C-alpha cells in the first residue's frame, strides 16, 4: 500500500464518518470509481469507527464480517501442521482463527492470524521470514509465544500463536474487585514482560487491554508482541501502514514518526490510567478513531484524581467504581492524588523524551509507591520527601507530633501532654536500652573474631554464631523480645551458612518466645525460618504441619498476604519432595501467582518460586513449559543481579535442569560450571549449595558419558554430604546413587551394588516404597545385580522399580523407561523371556523413532526383537541384526550398550 493510497483512504473515511451508515455504500461507489478494494478498505474503517463505543457488538459483527470476507471454506483448511477450526476475532491486521494441531505429533491448540490482503506484498514476505525467528525467540512466562508461521498457497502470511483462554486485564481487575495496590502489582507483571521484550529490541506497538489477557489462574499473558512490527511498513513508508489501535496510540505513532520503546511507555500509561480510574484520560465528544487521535495530539490528560472527582460531580456511578477498588469515592480520590497522578501523567507526556526513560523506571516508581517511598515523577523537594518519610514511619512521627503539641499547647493541655510525654519517654528509654544492648552484644560478638583479642585463635563463622547464641540466652534473660529477635537473626545466619541442624533449635526458640510475647512478626518470621530448616533436613511432614497455621492466617492485610504466599511456596517444596505432584503443582502455581501479585514478576521472591517450579515441570515431562519459564527468569535475573549473587546461581541452575534433560548438554555444562564458580565465590567450597552444584555438574558429565570425571566428582560430593548430614539424609542417597551408576559404567559392579543398597535403604526409610527416588534406587540396584549375574534378585528389584515408578509418576509416564529396559534384559538373561514381551513392548512404545536419536530407538527395538526371537518368532532375527548393525556403527563395538545387546542376541538365538 502506497502512502498516496493511505491518504486517499483516510480522506474518504473522514468525509463519510459523520454520515448515516445506510448512505456509506452509495457514497463509496460514487467516490471510488469502481475500485472495489478501496471501497472495502474504507468501509472496514467506517464500521470499526461506528462500533468503537460498543465493544461486544463490535466483536460479534467483526466475526460475522470476517466469515463473510474469508468464507466458510477456510474452516478445516490446513496451514503447516495446523487445521483451522473457527474464527474467534478480527482486528486491523486480519482475521484470527482457533486452530488445532493436525499432524498427529501431539495435541495443541493455537490462535492463527491470517494477515489481511492489503499487506500481501513482496517486501512484507521478505521481512516476515527475516523477523519471525526473532519473535519466536522472545520467551517470557507472561508473553504468549509465537509458535509457527508461514505463507499460504496464495501468498498470504499466517502466524500461529499460543492460544490464551482469559479475559482482558481491565475486565479481570473489575471482576476480581482488586484494590489499587493489587492493580499496581498486576500492572507490574505487564511491565516485567515489556521490559524483557525491550531488552531484546522488540517494541509491542499495539498494547491495549484486549492484548493483555489474564487466565483463570491469575497468569497474565501479553498477546501479539512484535506482531505489529512484523506487518508494519518499513521506515520509509511509516505513514502508509499503521498497525495500531487509535484509542491506544502514542502521539508519535499518529504523526507517523519512527517507533521507539517510548511508544509502549505511553500506552502503558493509558493502561494504568484505565486500571486505576475505569476510564481514559481524555474528554471525547464521540468515541471514534479520529476523535481519539485528535485528543492524543492536542488535549492535556486529566489527572486521575480529578477524573474520578469529575465523574462523581457529573452523576456517574462513582460509588460503584470506587467499590470495585474496595474504597469510597472520597478515599479513591485521595489515594490517586499525588504520586499516582504524577506517575501516570509522566508516562503520558506528549514528548517521548519527557516520559520515563524505560519501562523499568516506570515500574521503579510504582514499586516506590507500593513501599511508601518517594517517586521520581514528583520531584517534590523536602516537603514531599518528608511526607513520604512520615508515611513510612507513622508511629515515630506521631510520637514527635505529641511532643510538639505538648510544647505548643496551653497549661492544662501541657500538663496532660506531660503525662503522655513521660509515657513516651519510658518507651523511648526502653527502645534506647534495647538498641544499646543489641549494639553491645554485636560488638562483643565481633571482638571474638578480632585477632588481637582472640590471641591467635582462628574463629570460624560457625563458632562465632554458636558463641553468640549461647551469649544471647545468658545476657537477655530479662529482655525476652530482644532475645527472640536475636535468636531469629542467628537462626537465619546459621541456615544461610548451610548449618541447618544448628539453625533449627534457634528458630524454634525464637518462635516460642514470639508466640508467648504476642509478637506476631517475630513469631511468623521465626516459623518460616524453622520450616526452611526442616525442609533442608528432609523433615517434610513436620514442615507441612508447621505451615498449616501460617496458611490459615487472614489475607486481609498485605503482611498476612505475604505470609500466606511464602507459606504456600514452602508447602509446594515439601509436597514435591513427598511425591504429591498434583498438590505441589497447584501450590507452586498459587505461590507464583500471589508473589507476582504482591511484588511483581521481577521481584526475587517471585523468581525464587519460578525457579523451583521449573524443576517440578521437568519432572512432570512439561519440558517446553519449563524451558520457557527458566529462560525468561534467568534473563530477568541477569539484568538486575550482581555477578556473585547466589540468586543468579539459582536462576542458572534452573535452566541447567531443563537442558540436562532436553539438551544441548554443552550449554547445560557451561551453565553448571558458571553456577559452581558463583557459589564458590559467594558461599564457599563447602556450602551445601556449592556441593549441590558440583553434584549437578557431575550429572551433566555423566549424561555426556564422561564417566571417570563424573565418578570423581560424585565421590567428592558424597564425602562432603556425609560430613554435613550424616548417613541417613536424602542428599546422601542421591550422591550414592549417582556414584553407583558411574561405577556400573566403569565396570565396577560390586562397588555399584553397595552404593545402590545404601541409597535404597535411606530412601525407603525417608519416603517409603512408592516414591520416584525409591524407584530409581531399585533400578540402579537391579542393574548392578544384572552385571554381577544375580538374575533372580535383579528381576525382583526391577519389577519393583517399574511398579514404584507407575505408582509415583503414573503408568503413562516415561520415567519407567529405563527400568522396563533393564527388566527385559533380566528376563532374557534369567532364561524365561515373557511370552508377551510386555516390558519390551512398553519401553518401545514410550520412545517413538526420531531422526536425531536413531540409536536409542534401535536399542529399544533390538531388545524387543530379542524378546520375540527368544519366544520362537524367527522373523525377528532380521530386525535384531539390523538394529545391532546400526548400534555398532553409531556407538562402536566396545560400547557397554552395544555389548548388552550382543549378549541378548546370543541368549535369544539359543
In words, what does this structure look like?
The chain is mainly alpha-helical and 910 residues long. Among the domains are: 166-390, Transferase(Phosphotransferase), domain 1 (Orthogonal Bundle), CATH 1.10.510.10; 705-827, Tetratricopeptide repeat domain (Serine Threonine Protein Phosphatase 5, Tetratricopeptide repeat, Alpha Horseshoe), CATH 1.25.40.10; 833-910, no CATH class. The protein has 42 helices and nine strands. The longest helix has 37 residues, at 411-447. It is flat. The N and C termini lie far apart (76 Å). The model is unreliable at 52-71, 230-242 and 380-459 (pLDDT under 50).
Secondary structure elements and pairings:
Layout: H1 3-16, H2 24-32, H3 36-50, H4 55-70, E1 78-79, E2 82-91, E3 94-101, E4 109-115, H5 122-136, E5 146-151, E6 157-162, E7 166-168, H6 169-175, H7 180-199, E8 212-215, E9 220-222, H8 227-231, H9 251-254, H10 261-277, H11 289-298, H12 304-313, H13 318-323, H14 329-336, H15 339-347, H16 359-370, H17 381-392, H18 394-408, H19 411-447, H20 451-454, H21 461-475, H22 480-496, H23 500-517, H24 520-536, H25 540-551, H26 558-577, H27 581-599, H28 604-619, H29 623-640, H30 646-662, H31 665-683, H32 688-703, H33 707-725, H34 730-745, H35 749-767, H36 772-787, H37 791-809, H38 817-829, H39 838-846, H40 854-870, H41 876-891, H42 896-908
Helix pairs in contact: 1-3, 2-3, 7-10, 7-16, 7-27, 10-15, 12-14, 15-16, 18-19, 21-22, 22-23, 22-24, 23-24, 24-25, 24-26, 25-26, 26-27, 26-28, 27-28, 28-29, 28-30, 29-30, 30-31, 31-32, 32-33, 33-34, 34-35, 34-36, 35-36, 36-37, 36-38, 37-38, 38-39, 38-40, 39-40, 40-41, 40-42, 41-42
Amino acid at each position: 500500500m502506497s502512502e498516496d493510497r493511505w491518504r486517499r483512504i483516510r480522506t474518504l473515511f473522514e468525509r463519510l464518518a459523520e454520515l448515516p451508515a445506510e448512505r456509506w455504500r452509495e457514497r463509496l461507489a460514487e467516490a471510488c470509481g469502481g475500485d472495489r478494494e478501496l471501497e472495502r478498505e474504507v468501509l472496514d474503517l467506517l464500521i470499526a469507527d461506528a462500533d468503537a463505543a460498543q465493544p461486544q457488538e463490535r466483536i460479534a459483527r467483526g466475526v460475522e464480517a470476517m466469515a463473510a470476507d474469508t468464507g466458510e471454506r477456510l474452516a478445516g483448511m490446513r496451514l503447516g501442521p495446523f487445521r483451522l477450526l473457527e474464527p474467534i476475532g478480527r482486528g486491523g491486521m486480519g482475521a484470527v482463527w482457533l486452530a488445532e494441531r493436525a499432524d498427529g505429533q501431539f495435541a495443541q491448540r493455537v490462535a492463527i492470524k491470517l494477515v489481511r490482503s492489503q499487506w500481501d506484498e513482496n517486501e512484507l514476505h521478505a521481512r516476515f521470514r527475516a523477523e519471525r525467528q526473532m519473535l519466536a525467540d522472545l520467551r517470557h512466562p507472561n508473553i504468549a509465544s509465537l509458535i509457527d508461521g508461514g505463507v499460504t498457497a496464495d501468498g498470504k502470511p499466517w502466524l500461529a500463536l499460543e492460544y490464551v483462554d482469559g479475559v482482558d486485564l481491565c475486565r479481570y481487575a473489575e471482576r476480581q474487585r482488586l484494590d489499587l495496590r493489587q492493580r499496581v502489582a498486576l500492572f507490574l507483571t505487564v511491565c516485567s514482560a515489556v521490559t524483557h521484550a525491550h531488552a531484546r529490541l522488540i517494541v509491542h506497538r499495539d498494547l491495549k487491554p484486549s492484548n493483555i489477557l489474564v487466565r483463570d489462574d491469575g497468569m497474565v499473558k501479553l498477546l501479539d508482541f512484535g506482531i505489529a512490527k512484523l506487518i508494519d511498513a518499513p521506515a520509509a513508508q511509516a505513514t502508509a501502514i499503521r498497525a495500531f489501535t487509535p484509542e491506544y496510540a502514542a502521539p508519535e505513532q499518529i504523526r507517523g514518526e519512527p517507533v521507539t520503546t517510548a511508544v509502549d511507555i505511553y500506552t502503558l500509561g493509558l493502561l494504568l490510567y484505565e486500571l486505576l480510574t475505569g476510564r481514559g484520560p481524555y474528554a471525547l465528544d464521540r468515541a471514534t478513531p479520529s476523535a481519539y487521535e485528535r485528543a492524543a495530539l492536542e488535549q492535556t490528560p486529566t489527572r486521575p484524581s480529578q477524573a474520578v472527582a469529575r465523574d462523581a460531580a457529573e452523576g456517574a456511578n462513582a460509588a460503584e467504581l470506587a467499590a470495585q477498588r474496595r474504597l469510597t469515592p472520597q478515599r479513591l480520590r485521595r489515594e490517586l492524588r499525588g504520586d499516582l497522578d504524577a506517575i501516570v501523567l509522566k508516562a503520558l507526556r506528549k514528548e517521548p523524551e519527557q516520559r520515563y526513560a524505560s519501562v523499568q523506571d516506570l515500574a521503579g516508581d510504582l514499586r516506590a509507591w507500593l513501599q511508601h517511598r518517594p517517586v521520581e515523577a514528583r520531584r517534590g523537594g523536602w516537603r514531599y520527601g518528608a511526607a513520604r518519610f512520615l508515611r513510612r514511619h507513622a508511629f515515630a512521627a506521631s510520637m514527635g507530633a505529641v511532643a510538639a503539641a505538648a510544647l505548643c499547647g496551653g497549661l492544662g493541655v501541657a500538663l496532660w501532654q506531660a503525662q503522655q510525654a513521660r509515657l513516651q519517654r519510658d518507651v523511648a528509654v526502653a527502645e534506647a536500652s534495647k538498641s544499646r544492648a543489641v549494639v553491645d552484644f554485636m560488638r562483643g560478638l565481633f571482638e571474638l573474631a578480632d585477632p588481637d583479642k582472640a590471641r591467635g585463635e582462628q574463629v570460624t563463622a560457625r563458632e562465632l554464631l554458636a558463641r553468640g547464641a549461647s551469649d544471647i540466652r545468658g545476657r537477655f534473660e530479662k529482655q525476652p523480645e530482644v532475645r527472640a529477635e536475636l535468636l531469629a537473626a542467628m537462626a537465619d545466619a546459621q541456615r544461610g551458612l548451610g548449618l541447618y541442624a544448628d539453625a533449627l533449635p534457634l528458630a524454634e526458640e525464637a518462635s516460642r518466645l514470639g508466640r508467648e510475647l504476642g509478637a506476631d512478626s517475630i513469631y511468623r518470621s521465626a516459623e518460616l525460618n524453622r520450616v526452611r530448616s526442616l525442609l533442608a533436613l528432609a523433615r517434610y511432614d513436620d514442615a507441612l504441619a508447621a505451615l498449616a497455621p501460617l496458611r490459615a492466617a487472614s489475607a486481609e492485610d498485605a503482611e498476612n498476604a505475604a505470609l500466606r504466599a511464602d507459606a504456600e511456596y514452602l508447602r509446594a517444596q515439601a509436597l514435591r519432595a513427598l511425591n504429591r505432584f498434583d498438590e505441589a503443582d497447584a501450590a507452586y502455581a498459587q505461590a507464583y501467582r500471589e508473589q507476582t501479585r504482591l511484588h511483581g514478576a521481577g521481584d526475587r521472591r517471585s523468581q525464587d518460586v519460578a525457579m523451583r517450579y521449573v524443576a517440578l515441570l521437568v519432572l512432570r515431562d512439561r519440558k517446553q513449559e519449563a524451558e520457557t519459564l527458566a529462560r525468561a527468569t534467568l534473563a530477568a535475573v541477569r539484568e538486575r543481579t550482581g555477578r556473585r549473587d547466589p540468586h543468579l546461581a539459582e536462576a542458572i541452575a534452573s535452566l541447567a535442569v531443563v537442558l540436562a534433560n532436553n539438551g544441548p548438554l554443552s550449554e547445560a555444562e557451561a551453565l553448571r560450571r558458571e553456577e559452581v564458580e558463583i557459589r564458590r565465590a559467594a558461599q564457599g567450597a563447602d556450602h551445601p549449595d556449592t556441593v549441590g552444584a558440583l553434584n549437578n555438574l557431575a550429572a551433566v558429565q555423566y549424561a555426556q558419558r564422561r564417566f571417570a570425571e563424573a565418578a570423581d566428582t560424585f565421590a567428592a560430593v558424597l564425602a562432603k554430604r556425609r560430613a554435613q548430614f550424616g548417613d541417613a539424609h536424602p542428599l546422601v542417597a542421591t550422591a550414592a546413587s549417582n556414584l553407583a551408576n558411574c561405577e556400573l559404567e566403569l565396570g565396577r559392579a560390586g562397588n555399584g551394588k553397595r552404593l545402590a543398597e545404601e541409597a535404597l535403604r535411606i530412601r525407603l526409610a525417608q519416603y517409603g516404597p512408592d516414591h520416584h527416588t525409591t524407584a530409581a534406587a531399585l533400578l540402579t540396584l537391579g542393574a548392578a545385580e544384572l552385571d554381577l549375574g544375580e538374575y533372580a534378585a535383579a528381576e525382583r528389584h526391577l519389577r519393583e522399580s517399574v511398579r514404584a515408578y507407575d505408582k509415583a509418576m503414573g503408568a503413562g509416564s516415561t520415567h519407567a523407561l529405563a527400568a522396563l529396559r533393564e527388566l527385559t534384559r533380566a528376563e532374557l538373561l534369567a532364561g524365561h523371556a515373557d511370552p508377551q514381551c510386555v516390558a519390551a513392548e512398553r519401553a518401545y512404545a514410550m520412545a517413538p523413532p526420531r531422526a536425531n536419536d536413531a540409536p536409542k530407538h534401535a536399542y529399544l527395538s533390538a531388545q524387543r526383537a530379542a524378546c520375540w526371537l527368544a519366544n520362537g518368532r524367527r522373523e525377528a532375527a532380521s530386525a535384531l541384526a539390523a538394529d545391532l548393525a546400526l548400534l555398532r556403527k553409531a556407538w562402536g563395538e566396545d560400547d557397554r550398550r552395544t555389548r548388552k545387546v550382543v549378549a541378548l542376541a546370543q541368549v535369544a538365538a539359543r
